[in-house]
Amino acid sequence: MSHVKAGGTSKNNRDSQGQRLGVKLFGGQKVSNGQVIVRQVGLTKRAGEGTMLGRDYTIHAAKDGIVTFKSRKVRLFSGKSVRRTEVTVQ
Question: Which of 24, 30, 50, 54 could form a disulfide with 89 if both were Cys (CB 3.0 to 4.6 A apart)?
């Protein structure tokens, strides 16, 4: 027979890695074509002029320039108007 008592099971030992989301380049910074500006889940920030939206809602620069952020009113499907941040490259 064993002389060591049975150890309990642990239930909280799983943890996932962070997704490294957020704004990668801020307003006024230089950006080159194809560079990631914002990584996000869902459309919290909108892609404006000079940017392109990836399949996972990542906003990339479509041309070389300077990043700008501005607040803009957007109409939702329900008809409600809300403010959203628009990312552009000029």
Answer: 50
